[in-house]
Amino acid sequence: MRAAFDALGPWLHEPLGPDETEPDTLLSASGPHRYRAVFISDLHLGTPGCQAVALLDFLKHHPSDHLYLVGDIVDGWQLRRKWFWPQTHNDVVQKLLRRARKGCRVVFVPGNHDEFARAFVGHSFGGIEVVADAVHTTADGRSLWVTHGDHFDGVIQCAKWLAYLGDNLYEFTLKLNRHLNTLRARLGLPYWSLSAYLKGKVKKALNYVTDFEVAVATEARRRGHDGVVCGHIHRAEMREIGGTLYCNDGDWVESHTALVEHLDGRLELLQWPAVPAHSTTSSVKAGASA
Ligand SMILES: [Mn+2]
Q1: Distance in Å, CA 265 to ligand 1 centroid
Q2: Would you say 231 and 41 are in contact if contact means Cβ atoms under 8 Å apart?
Q3: Which residues does 195 contact at the CB level (< 8 Å), separation at least 6?
Q4: Which of 92, 154, 211, 281 is the most exposed place for a label (fewest CB within 10 A)?
Q5: Where's the Calcineurin-like phosphoesterase domain (predicted)?
Q6: pLDDT tens digits, residue range 226-261?
């Protein structure tokens, strides 16, 4: 571990200069694979949890035409409580600015932890556009709605109340079940568990992640898009929900995950190692592309 850390030394401690500590060959055919778009979120810069070193390494190896920063990039909530800003976090910001300067379209969609940036929607900082939400059209013509996703917390809070009511309803069904089966017994019918039937449904209603995913995908469809790219819940995922493509690009606190679009429009979830191994990225799971 120590050796790996020492090996990183040179570029850990040497700030990425304004000009170009990285050779431009990185962008040539012999360099790393080039992507059409990269989506990352939940970096939480300004907190000790942010895996800035792994992120710098990932960015270096994934040049792209578009880069979407899908919210919770800088953790304003934590910074207000306790200032934490090491050199590596500066390096990330410099890297993002440099990428914009080099012709990559960098779009920043603020999240709840960097909601201070929502006051600057419509402006741009050093070429980084700040927008409330975005629409990305893939090379194969799919329309993806790009949003952080925290606005759906309210919807899910409502869903929790419904689930709570559902729970009380469950108590009621237990009673109803007893009466129902007394009646069924009198009629000579076998026992049937209404409560067991409903229990599964209530359990499902209590599943926050599922609620979030369904709520976001439903709104994307309502807005007329083929899919959605979001973050917020720190859970990378890509799957169809009711005919809408739901993509969550994960986070850079625990999972080091990103969503990428290949030049042909194919989308893929990538997981990058915590300690840079300078190897190829691995898919989060087999077949996690669409
Ligand atoms: Mn968030």
Answers
A1: 27
A2: yes
A3: 170, 173, 174, 177
A4: 154
A5: 36-235
A6: 999 999 999 999 999 999 999 999 999 989 999 999
Report the separation in Å between the CA atom of 132 and the middle of ligand 1, taken as the mean of its atom positions.
14
CA–centroid distance, 194 to ligand 1, in Å, is: 39
Please identify which residue in the block is written with the tokens 């190692």: 273
- Whole-number Å distance, alpha carbon 205 to ligand 1 midpoint, is 22
CA atoms within 13 A on the CB side of 94: 17
Q: How many whole angstroms from 39 Cα to the centroid of ligand 1?
A: 15
DSSP run (H or E) holding 9: helix 2-13
Beta pairing partners, 32: none
Task: Give me ligand 1 centre to Cα 63, in Å.
Answer: 25
Q: Domain spans of the chain?
A: 2-149+229-283
The per-residue pLDDT for range 62-102, each reduced to its tens digit, is 999 999 999 999 999 999 999 999 999 999 999 999 999 99
CATH no., domain 2-149+229-283: 3.60.21
Residue 289 has a pLDDT of 60
Which pTM does this prediction carry? 0.73
